[in-house]
Amino acid sequence: MTHTRTQAPSGLVIVDKPGGLTSHGVVSRMRRLAGTRRVGHAGTLDPMATGVLIIGVEKATRLLGHLALTEKEYTATIRLGQSTVTDDAEGEVTASAPATGVTEQGVAAGIAALTGPIQQVPSKVSAIKVGGVRSYTRVREGEDFELAARPVTVHSFTVQDLRRTGDLLDLDVTVVCSSGTYIRALARDLGAGLGVGGHLTALRRTRVGPYAIGQARTLEQLEESFAVLPIEDAAGAAFPRWDVDAEQARLLGHGVRIAAPALPAGPTAAFGPDGRLLALVEEHSGQVRIVAGFAQ
After folding, report:
1. Range(s) for CATH 3.30.2350.10 in the chain?
2. Annotated catalytic residue, options 16, 46, 87, 189
3. How distant is the alpha carbon of residue 51 from its chain centre?
4. Which of 15, 19, 35, 119 counts the most CB atoms within 10 A of its CB?
5. pLDDT digits (tens, 9 = 90+) for 193-222
């Protein structure tokens, strides 16, 4: 008896990643559940972190590089009074200083300095490549190096609760920021600015662009019932929509550049008369340029 393998549906899976698992580990689980190796993720979460991880299946993997450039929201706990090698609770403590003298006003001033457009030096124990080698690999090998600061935007940085435990001060915060912002680095820099050191003890991503934690499903739920957000729905939620006529759809399907309407900046999702996603497009010199095609 022969078994016919069905084509995995193209779409996104909004996963509520558990702690202790890498983003690549989630991708491996999704490959098994989807029955295809054509699976990827948008925006890595550290193993310690939980929350929204966007998984693309089949053609939807072409959306991921564009989704990764969106705004993100986190809840986190920052511990002031200790610095660690990783800027989070998974690394060994490298320095301690009593945070008993840190006031709420001082915290507010430190947070204000880290809000808005800032230059941020990423955590050294990260996946950023330096000369083709991952930064965390260089740290493990004992190399002494510096990472360059990068422009990021922290749209909001709000303290929800403040707790003192001995010489330490824990802050529960919410952060809304641009892609590429390291919450661990915010904890490190807040502690450094207050002169006591700081690191992250908990991190949960609650939103990536339009995809919020309320839409996310745990791995256990997906094991019981695997389903994807159809690619048309996924693109319609994340990008401006442009509905084209049959002739425009035919030309776009063949990769032909056509005259551009007044499109917003950045990628726009082009949909055919039948409602199918044709492409992500951008306006370039008065014409439509395809940045990702889905017609084939």
Report:
1. 11-69+209-232, 72-207
2. 46
3. 10
4. 15
5. 999 999 999 999 999 999 999 999 999 999
